[in-house]
Protein: DUF6917 domain-containing protein
Amino acid sequence: MKENGPKREVDGVLVKVLLHRRDERGMSLEPHASRCVRRGEVHELVTTDHRETEAGARIDRVGFLGFAEISCAGVLDRGDEFWLGDTLIGTVLGFDACHFPNHYNILITRADVVTGADLGLTPELPVSFRPA
Structure:
């Protein structure tokens, strides 16, 4: 039985750039494969080379990109593409809620761990989550 139909792209803008990385961060993957986000919320963007999707999977190797303000409400799903401007950065692995309800850590999986400094990010750069 098919559960999911089409959905809108979720857009936003980078509001703060982060420059650090960790090899023993100990984030914990939420059991939920999707999360709703509201217009005006701010969430943290984190890269990882981990691929595990089991609930509670430990995520240690991370690079911090920054914080983004959501411009339109929507649903983020595991597997969505994450774009910074015109550049595909990776795909949504899942969510860590260690700082919730302040914000989610949105975990973006890719081949290598990068930070905001590595990518030369600046505030006001457009971000988008696009259906895979």
